[in-house]
Amino acid sequence: MSTFVSWMRARFRRQSPWVWATALITGLIALPLLFVLSRLVEGGTSGLFGAVFGPTTRGYLWNTLRLFLGVGVLCFVWGVGTAWLVTQYEFPGRRGLSGALILPLVIPTYILAYAYAGALDVTGPIEGLLRGWWGAPVGRARRVPFEIMSLWGLTLLLALNLYPYVLMTCRAAFARQSVGVWEVAKSLGVGPWRTFFTVILPMTRPAWVGGLTLCMLEVVNDYGAAEYYGVDTFATAIFRAWFGRDDAPLAIRMAALLMLLVLVLLGLERWQRGEARYHEGKSVRPMLRQPLHGGWAWMATLFCVVPFFFGFVLPVLQLGLWTWQTGSKHLNAGFGRLLMNSVWVAGSVAFCAVGVALLIAYTVRVFEGPWVQRMARLALVGYSIPGTVIAVGVMVVAAQVDRLLMDWRWTHQTILGGSFGLLLAAFVVRFLMVAYSPIETGFQKNGRNLNEASRLLGHPPWRTLWLVELPLMKSALLAAFLLVFIDALKELPLTLFLRWGNFQTLSTEIYNYAKQMEVAEEAGLYALFLVSVGMIPVFVLEKLLGHQGER
Amino acid sequence: MSFFEAQGVTRRYAGTSEDAIHAIDISLDAGDSLVLVGESGSGKTTFLRCIAGFEIPDRGTIRCQDRWWVSPTEWLPPEKRGIGMLFQDYALFPHLRVGANIAFGLRHLTRAEQEQTVARTLDQVRLTGYAERYPHQLSGGQQQRVALARALAAHPRLLLLDEPFSNLDEMVKAEIREEIYGLLRTLGIATISVVHDSRDALRCGDQIALLHRGRLLQVASPQDLYLRPASCYAARFLGPANLVPAERKAGAYHCALGVLPAPHDPRPPAQGWLCIRPEHLYMEAAKTSDVPSIAISCMIRSCHFLGPYWEIHLNPHLLHPQTTLLNASSPPTNHSRRLDTCSKDASLPAQGVEASWVAHLPTHAPPTPHTTATFYVSPHHLCWIE
What we know:
The complex is a heterodimer.
Chain A (H helix, E strand, L loop, with lengths): L1 H13 L2 H25 L2 H10 L1 H34 E2 L3 H7 L8 H11 L5 H10 L16 H26 L2 H9 L4 H12 L1 H17 L2 H5 L5 H11 L3 H26 L16 E2 L2 H37 L2 H34 L3 H11 L6 H21 L12 H27 L1 H9 L4 H12 L1 H17 L2 H6 L7 H11 L7 H11 L1 H10 L6
Parallel strand pairs in A: 1-2
Chain B lengths: L3 E8 L9 E8 L4 E5 L6 H9 L6 E6 L2 E4 L12 E4 L11 H5 L8 H14 L15 H14 L4 E5 L7 H18 L2 E6 L2 H7 L2 E6 L2 E6 L1 H6 L4 H6 L4 E8 L2 E4 L2 E4 L8 E7 L17 E12 L4 E7 L23 E2 L15 E5 L10 E6 L5 E3 L1
Parallel strand pairs in B: 3-8, 3-9, 6-7, 7-8
Antiparallel strand pairs in B: 1-2, 1-4, 4-5, 9-10, 11-12, 11-14, 11-17, 12-13, 14-20, 15-16, 15-19, 16-18
C-alpha cells in the first residue's frame, strides 16, 4: 500500500505546471456549460420530460426540427452535388466555381437575412425590376411570389449560407477517393449514377454527415436571422426570456435543452463515424476529371452557379446597393469608433484564444496521455455550443461568483457581470477550437523530434516552445489569430448578450439598425465591411497553412 | 555497479491490452555500446523513449551512474538527464545555422566558449567551416554529422541513436556509420542504438538486445547471438537458419537426420531444436577436425548466384520421416517431422509440405539442380536451442 502511495505521489509530481494549467483552464471552460446542463437534471426525469415536451418548448423544438430537415436536405443536395461535380468533372467555369462556391460562408447569417429581406421587400430592387418588366400587379400587392420572412424563407436562407460546410468536407473526401473504386464499379458494369449512390455516398458518409452536423450546429447557433424573420427557435426564446421577461431560470432551462439537443447531434455524429475511418483512404492515383459535353456541361455549370449566385452574389449586390445609397452618410467618426470597439474586442479575443489554444495544444503534444487528451476535447467543446447557451452559462456563473464575493464582503458591486473580462471569456469558450486547429496543425508540421532534441539538450518545455516551436510556426499562429479575429468580428448573439451599457460593435450596430430601427439599409456599409473582412481568410489561409487545397 | 541500469521497465499504452514493453532489464558499462533490435512493434522505440524520458514507465527503475532517472519515487525530466540523441530525420533546427544548432545546448557557457566548442566539435565530425550554413544546405550525411556534433558538444553521459542511418543512401550509410561509431568508440561514450535491420545490428554495438513483442529475448555479443541463439526466433532474426526438431540424450542429438554425435554437449536430456547456419553446410568434409563431419544427403532444388556466395535451396533426405513433431505446443501434423529454413516472422517453422533448407557456398561451381548431393556439417556448428 505504501509503495502504491509513493507511486501515486511520484506520478503526481511528474505532472508539470503545463498539465495543471490545462486542467484549470478546462475546468473554467467547462464550468458554465456544466452549470447549464446541470439544470436539466434538477427536476428529475419527469421534469426533463416536461421540459422537452412542454407546451412552450414544443413549438421551438418543432421549428428547429423543421429547420434541420429543410436545411439538411438542401445542404445535402447543394453541398454533395457541387462537391461531386467540381472534383469529378470538367465543365465551363469549374475552376473558378470550385473556389467561389465556399464564399457564401463568409456572409454572417444575420446579414444574409437582412439583405434578402431588403432585396425582396415591396420597395426592394427585385420587386422594382419585376414591376418594370411586367408592370404593377393587379389585385396583389407584390410581384415576388413568396414571402421570404417565414420559416421556409429562413430554411432557404440558412441552406444557402451553410451548404459550403458539406461542400468542403465532401470535396476533401471525394478528392481522396481512390480511382480504383470507381473503376471496379465500372468494370462490373455499374453505371455512374448507381455507383455514386451505392458506392461513393456510403463510402464518404462520415464526410457528408460531418458537414451536415456542422450545418445543424450553425442552425441552432443562429439568432439574428431567426429573430428577424419571426421564427421562434431556442435562441430567440432564450433571448426573450432573459431580456424580455427577465426570467433567468426559464432562459437557463431553454439553454439546457438547446445544449442537450447539440449533445444529441454530436453523439449521433460520433456514433455514425464509429471506429471505422474508412473515408481517410489515401488515394494513390487521383481521379482524372471527366470532361462533360454540351447540355450536360452547361447544366453542371448552372447547378454550381445557382447556390453561389443566391448565396453570395445577390446579397452582396444588395449590400452594395445599400452602401451606395447610405454609405457616405456613415463614413464618419462613428464608424471609426465602432470599428475601434470591434477591433478591440476581436483582437483581445483572438489574442487570448491563441494563447489558451497554444497552452492546451502544447500540453497535449508534450505531456501526451489519455487524460490530457480528454481535457483538451472538453475544453474545445464550446465550438459546438450555440453562442446563446454559452452566454447564459457564463452570465449565470459570473452572477454566482459575484454574489459569493459580495457575501464575503470582498466587494460591494458586481465585478464579473457586465465586464469586458466576461465577454472575453465567453468568446474564448466559443472560439477556442478555431484557434486550436491551425495551431495543432502547426505543431504537427514541426514534428515531434525537434521538440525532443531541444529538450534533451537541456531546455525545459517552455523554453523549447519559445526557441524551437514558435519560430517555426509563425504562419500557423497568424492564421489562428486571423481566423478567431474575423469570427469574433462577425459574432452577434454573444456580443448582444454580454455587452454592457451603450457599448456597440459593428455587428451589434447592424443588428440595431435592422431590427430595432427597421432601417437595414443604413447598415449597408458596416455589413459590406464585415463581409469583405470575412473574405480575407479565404484568400490568405491557403498560403499561411500551406496545405494543398483542392482547387 | 554498472554505469547504466534499467530494471523491470514496463510500459503499457492506454487502451491496449498488452504491455508495449514488459519487464526489460538492461545494464551498460561506461563506454559500452548496446543495440536494441526487433521487428517493428517489438517495443524497442518505446524502451528508448523511456530511457530518454519521453515515456514514463508504469513500473521499473532506470539509473545512470549514481542518479535515479526513474524510480518509484523519482522521475527526472528529459532535459535534466544529460542525454544526447540522434534521430532518423536528424532533427536539426531548420531556422538556425549549423553553429547555432551545435551551440543550442550550451547555454551555460559564455559566447567565446560556445564558439570554441562549436569549432572543436565541427572539427571532430570533419565539417570544419560549415558553421554558417543552414541545415537544408547540407546533404543527409552531413546533417547527421551536424546532429552528432550538436549532441557531442553538450557532453552527454549517454548517447541514444534512433535508427540514425535509415534515411541515408546505402553507399553513404556504411561510411557514416563507420565514422560515427568510430568517433563514439574513441570518445568512450556509452551508446544505445535502435536498429531495425538485423544486419546493421551486428555492426552497431558490442551487445545486442533482441526484443520481441515487448519482451527481451536475449542480450549477447553479436557472435553469440548469431552462433548461439537462445530461441528459434533469435536464430531466424539474424539470418536464415536451418532448424531441425531434435531430442538430446546421452551425448547425441536424435533427429530426422539420424543420430548426430554431440560429444561437446554433455547437458541433460531435453527436447529442442538444432540450428545450422547456411554457411556451415559444406560440400566436402572438414579434414582437420577432431570429430568427423556429419554427412547429409540432399536433393538440390535450385541455385542462385548472389555475388559473394551461391545460395542453394535443397531438401535433406529424412531418415525418420515418421517421427512426429517434437514441440508440444505446435499443432499436430499428419506429415513428417519438419525441417525448415524459416522466415523471420513465425516463431516456429512454418508447416510446409517438404523440408527446405538453404546453404551458402563460396564455390565457383555450384551443384547441378535436381541431383542428389552430400553436404557436411561439423558437429561444432550444430547449435542446440531449447
